[in-house]
Write a structure and sequence with these properties.
about 20% strand, about 35% helix, globular, alpha/beta, about 525 residues, seven-stranded mixed β-sheet, single chain
């Protein structure tokens, strides 16, 4: 192999790129992985945000990570440790009450019964609904996405059609109305339908977003989320170590200027410093817009493909705030700064469907939400590697923070928006402002600059109907391949979408191996 000639070049060292490189190297191919930043991991990283304090500055938790990928790449044997929390969700409410959902079904049913005895039965029916949905969807998770015809066959029959309606056409409010009567429970359980989407609870298709979040089995139980010991960067650090052992060459601090094409076929890449690297196969872990509208010259793409890709919805909508705290928040509904079960769960500020709808209403007209949806975790309660004794990290994902602002820019709006988030949190935990030692704020513009996410969208594009399955990223090109021979997508802009699952990387690698199988012995 000449120094600048490879079987495969992977553009982007996020978790999907690392996974794709790993599988391809295991098949005997020479693989070069190029990462723009000085550290691999993409938005799945652990970084220092204050002297001696580290945080997961992008993704914050794990559930969707494929058990098959974990087994294939022996991540547990390499030391990947998932800290499953006793509490799933803690939601303080404006009236001084709260909702506490546990990872133990009996305790959750008792808590739900405190709000509405009828909703305890509704919760059991809701879990059965998710199980029936997963039985139909899981066969498609680790393979090419289903066509609409195949999806219709998988959901045949009267019950199947009802499930299909919920999957593709219902919004979160409608779905919650099927199972619950308590307004607080509808909001707390339904919030997963808007987390990770630029959509409100009354937006058609948000029921699918909720179902997507419930598909993960990384912890051994569907829909249960966990912290990673050492932060999310432990996932990509172990993937990188394994990739190097398999023979992958990783070059960080190496931005790609273009993906090069000749006569309709990829021939390699050119770096921003002018260096050319050649390969007959290139996989891009970047989002579809970056891949095809920036790295590839449009002259190599049809006007129809470009037009459809330009309409692929991927406008950023969230902020990421990491706080360093000298003491835990003391909530008025459950006071105290000593560690308690509610501190371990996802702390959710989304007290009603109307609240979430109004937050989205601000975002869709280009304003930071006056009363944002806040999802916060405190990983240091379960992980002493992230901060010295006496300090804690609170990581918050905040919606809605639209990438495209109607007035001003994010350099101006960002600090004020972060102040508002802390002000909202202080309504529930009055000690929080005085407990802050430092804060690390990332706006949608920062997420774009830092992690290379076009428009700051954390999922490389919406995961609502019209942008999933055989429509992702555009109809006709949903099987990881592209109109350019030898160029593949392996990031979250391909099936099955966003989140730290590793499935797009794994499936893209298998698409490559399938296309090359006649040339590779033993695949």
């Amino acid at each position: 192999m000449a120094e600048n000639n490879w079987d495969v070049i992977v553009v982007g060292g996020g978790h999907n790129g690392l996974i794709a490189a790993n599988y391809l190297a295991r098949a005997g191919l020479s693989v070069l992985l190029l990462e723009r930043r000085d550290v691999v991991g993409g938005a799945c990283v652990t970084e220092e945000i204050h002297p001696g304090v580290r945080a997961s500055t992008g993704a914050i938790m794990v559930s969707l990570l494929s058990p098959q990928v974990m087994e294939d790449l022996a991540l547990a044997e390499r030391g990947l440790t998932l800290n499953v929390r006793e509490v799933a969700t803690f939601a303080p409410l404006p009236d001084g009450n709260h909702v506490l959902l546990w990872n133990d079904a009996k305790r959750t049913l008792h808590e739900i019964g405190r709000h509405s005895p009828r909703d305890a039965d509704g919760y059991l029916r809701f879990q059965q609904f998710l199980d029936r949905m997963a039985q139909r969807l899981e066969p498609w998770w680790m393979r090419n996405p289903p066509s609409m015809e195949e999806l219709a066959r998988a959901f045949s029959g009267s019950e199947g059609e009802w499930l299909l309606r919920a999957l593709l056409f219902s919004n979160v409010e409608e779905l919650m109305d099927e199972f619950f009567e308590s307004p607080a429970l509808k909001a707390v359980i339904g919030a997963d339908g808007v987390i990770g989407a630029f959509a409100g609870p009354r937006t058609p298709g948000t029921s699918y977003v909720l179902i997507h979040h419930a598909m993960g089995c990384a912890t051994g139980a569907r829909g249960v989320w966990a912290h990673v010991r050492g932060g999310m960067g432990s996932v990509t650090r172990l993937l990188a170590e394994d990739a190097v052992e398999q023979g992958v060459t990783i070059r960080s601090g190496t931005p790609v200027g273009s993906i090069d094409v000749e006569n309709g076929r990829v021939i390699g890449v050119t770096l921003t410093d002018g260096e050319t690297l050649r390969a007959t196969t290139v996989l891009s872990g970047a989002d579809p817009r970056t891949t095809f509208l920036r790295l590839v010259s449009r002259e190599h793409l049809s006007a129809n493909f470009v037009s459809r890709l330009e309409r692929f919805r991927m406008f950023g909508f969230c902020m990421k705030i990491d706080l360093v705290l000298r003491e835990l928040p003391s909530f008025e509904c459950l006071p105290g700064t000593e560690p308690a079960p509610h501190h371990h769960g996802v702390i959710l500020i989304a007290p009603s469907i109307d609240y979430m709808h109004q937050a989205y209403g601000d975002g869709r007209v280009g304003r930071f939400s006056a009363n944002p949806i806040i999802q916060a975790v405190i990983p240091t309660l379960d992980d002493d590697t992230l901060a010295p004794p006496g300090l804690h990290v609170m990581s918050m994902i905040v919606q809605f923070a639209p990438y495209h602002l109607a007035e001003g820019n994010w350099a101006e709006v960002g600090p004020r928006a972060a102040d508002r988030v802390i002000e909202i949190m202080a309504k529930y935990a009055p000690n929080l402002p005085d407990a802050i030692v430092a804060r690390h704020v990332q706006t949608p513009a920062d997420l774009e600059d830092r992690f290379g996410l076009a428009w700051g969208h954390p999922f490389h594009g919406e995961i609502r109907p019209g942008y999933i399955f055989s429509f992702r990223p555009v109809p006709g090109w949903s099987h990881y391949r592209s109109p350019i021979q030898g160029l593949y997508l392996c990031g979250a802009g391909s099936h099955p979408g966003g989140g730290v699952s590793g499935v797009p990387g794994r499936n893209a690698a298998y698409a490559v191996l399938d296309d090359l199988s006649e040339f590779i012995v033993g695949v």
